[in-house]
Batch of 2 targets.
Target 1
Amino acid sequence: MVEHINSGDFKKEVVDSKTPVIIDFYADWCMPCKMMAPVFEKLSGQYKGKLKFVKINVDENQELASDFNIQGIPALVIAKKGQEVDRIVGYAPEEAIKEKIDSII
Amino acid sequence: MTKLPKNKIGNNHNKSNSKSNLYDIVIIGGGPAGVSAAVYSKRFGLKTLLITREVGDDWAGAHKICNYPGFSEISGKDLAEKFLEHVKSIGVEVLFDEIKGIFKEKEIFEIKTNLKSFLAKKVIFAPGSVRKKLEIKGESELKGRGVSYCANCDAPFFKNKNVVVVGGGNSAISAAILLAEHASKIYLIYRKSEFFRPDKILLNVIKKNQKIETIFNEELAEIIGKSKVEGVLLKNSKKILNVNGVFIEAGGLPDLGIIASLNVKTKDNYILTDENQKTNVEGFFAAGDIIHNEFKQIVVAASQGAIASSQAYRELVQAKGDKDSPLTQY
């Protein structure tokens, strides 16, 4: 289950989250983002309860993108209590994302 | 429209072979060559599987494609989506997965992916190429922090900033034109003394655009910055340009690691094929950017995919000894 969040619920969903969070910064114009989407959705099922999966549209949430210094998308940012731990930029295959997640959570 | 045989070969395989993962054709790659091959193979009635990591890769990042018939102007993203819609609409089986290796035993190919293994009588190999990296200091460290390989994805992040585009092909020129809509200054850096490959129509656009400054006979020595790009060091002049973005559009390289065991003949690391897209390995075809061909274009790749499919179909029918096949029409 992947939730779309914005600056309004960022604190509740990311900063105050009991589990680590992986944020998919994306935009509708970005082809690699569209290709990443089904992989992200699939992984959200596999890590249920261990890692929260959320998406942030960079067009609609420029401030959040700027806060995280996003300059390339898709960007998957893994955060604990709202603080970035690591990120993957650009399309990445499922295995590479899993490897990154497993090394962190 | 020519009437095509209905599942002439594919169905027979299904009946005679209990292995449901045996395909007439497995196509590797979801770019124009692979998609075109899949459309033809499906319409030839062959049991077809298209395996791709994604539909569209670097070409799908193209800002505008203006040389594909039927579209006076279309973005790479939109064209890639149309390709995917097309193969899905005619029922091509598509698997999004990474190929780990392709092997051949007797007449049958085995295609191993991350999760599964498939068998095929014919393989059409059209994986495209992988983005060429500059392999300089700062490139991998600052990826996504100012270093980008997709101008179409990332250009809007560089509003009113200075950027560098590296490369001298159509993709580099297109990236510079797109970035001019957002950034305040674009340095287009090319290692040769003039542009040879880009379309004249694109070159005219950059000549007129005052935001774009072309620097010939130059390369990047280093990308400077700690947590984000702050500049680039030029190799020859030793100058530092203060930029926030580096867009690398230096072309692609073929990745032949997954077919190492087949001993496919290559030249300069690109696969050699004949006019029917056949390689030196029987039953193994190649098409698109992976083959040795100077004119790497979407329309060329699409045509090669169709030719490969047609030849594979012809061989499958011949192997079956089907004298009544309409293959002679192709």
Target 2
Amino acid sequence: MRSLFALLLLGFISSPLQDHSGMIKIPAGELRPFLLLAGQNGRIKVHSFYLDIHAVTNDEFLQFVKANPRWKRSGVSRAFADSNYLKQWAGDIEIGDDRIRNSPVTNISWFAANAYCKWKGKRLPTMDEWEYAAGAPPVNAKRGRDLSRIILEWYDHPNPAVLPVVGSTYKNRFGVYDMHGLIWEWVEDFNSVMPGSENRGPGGNPFVCGAGALGTANKEDYAAYMRYAFRESLQAAYTVGGLGFRCAQDIE
Amino acid sequence: MKKITHPERSILRYRWMALTGLVLVLIYTALTGCNQASGAKTTLSDTAAVIGEMNAELTHAPFVPNSRGAFQPEKVIVKIEVVEKVMKLADGVDYTFWTFGGSVPGPFIRVQEGDEVELHLSNSPGNKMPHNIDLHAVNGPGGGAEATLTVPGHSSVFTFRVMNPGLYVYHCATAPVGMHIANGMYGLVLVEPKGGLPKVDKEFYIMQGEFYTKGKNGEAGLQPFDMDKAIKEQPEYVVFNGSVGAATGSNALQAKVGDRVRLYVGNGGPNLVSSFHVIGQIFDKVYQEGGSQVNQNVGTTLIPSGGAAILEFTCHEPGTYNIVDHSIFRAFNQGALAQLIVSGPEDKVVYSGKVKDELYQPGSPEVSESEAPAEASIPDLPLAERIKKGQVLFETNCSSCHQPTGLGLPGAIPPLAQSDFLMNRQDKGIGVLLHGLNNEAITVNGNHYQGVMPQLPLSDDQIANILSYVRNNWGNKSPVVQEKEVKKLRNQ
């Protein structure tokens, strides 16, 4: 179904550009998955890939909308983005509030994020890639400033009225910024782990009730539950105030 | 007394009645269309038609919505918005609460057995987290949790049929569940039996929950959640209705003498079991765990985490009643304290108040006092005896402030020795001992004093002894003060 949408989208995406500017090469490695699915041995191999150093900003997304008018706020189909799409902007091709020009673009649907990455000659990172890249510790991590602490401090505060700019939190050992503590981010296969939101069969949804304790590799990583629960609550046309994205690219 | 009846049981009762051939059951069968003869499992959804539609009245604690008291199931629409916001947890202490409806606990939902509930859960666009709701009143997977997982800026809707009367907890069940509950996401849903619960004069909604803050109890500022303390079940705060003092002092619950009071008490947890008690009240009825079993004459009742109870008592006496988790350090050190203020006339038969306070000194017969004499004949005692007893009482009750020398403390505590205030009028001294001084200005030997002298729990006999002593010591000289003189002033 999604690939069908992707094909449809290709119809109105223009001028793909090939470049790695603003990206960094993430070395190959292994990911210890948060959820252990049947048949997995506890390690997932992740190939080397390029990843955007920071999340896509309002300014960057504005260029995309100007080049692809079908993704204007007033023109986009409700099938591809709900009615809150880009609601922080003043107009179709006008951000308005200068303070958020370099802040991550949010209120963005999966379809819109996917289209942007395609336009850039890139793609959305897979969940495994994203989790692998996000698992790297902060550069110059001080004592007690480990990852889970950054995440939990973010959880402990309500969303700020004005979203901070990209690069304002921390840089990790892969050289990418703000993997935690600024926004949630779309991944290509955001709902692939889940059997679907309506599940009356055995096993149950792993992210509600006591079932959440089953099948996780690390029960203490409760900060990660929230990330997976968040992804589970999404649909591809949804837009959310604290949800943005960054792009990835294969190594040729 | 009408009990909350389990629908399965009522159906069984009807079946038994069918065997006896009662016409009633034929009417019931005709109305509901359920097939008694086949023995097929009967569910409520095919026994009662839902007629009409209404928006639920939702209330914030300590208030409870009105009972519909109806016999006909309706479609009830419940709309709740989840809001993440910073609120006060204690004086000077803030916390980022995750709330149903902007308050902790969430709104009280009151529906009736057989109702079809259409629940709308909205996640405020300004929120950061996904949320959902698991209502323990639901028969179905996750109690609605799976159907309502909702991202910020969206709403979810699901319907359920309430089939089991009782008082139930609802809570957020999004991973990590413990954290969502620890941040305040819980409330109560009451499913009344058909026709409603018996009427009472006052109903209140109280919900206990504990908070695990990084900083110790009382540490000021915005306090983050502490997962380690939550796992160890070592909270810094245990509170009723979301914050320390949410239902004490000027926020206390109010009732009148003679009122029958019903408390709907829930325990959100996330961990602790509550030993729920109202100091100075006995629960006439306890619907244990919010179910159909009614216990009577209970002092303290257990309320499990994620559970509830319906408690009823009668207000016989005026006064302030402390409501506590009788795991008692939680009440006096962590905040688990609410208050009920009952106003109205006293009934000395039910509760006399303190009738007497006397020294208890085993082995010292000379200072022990005889039983209070009958009112009709209060004997006068000689001055020497009153002075002797008065000295002991003075040293116990008065000398730490007025000093053994009777000189007081300059500028703060007035002197008794050669005090014009004390010696000019005997009745003034009696009045001060009877009622204390509450920041009233007095002049003693030309000096002004303004302060508090506590009202001491002294009997008329003891006051007579103390006054006889102080008015005949340190150079003071006056006649003996007798008990009946004190009594006369007390009764004025």
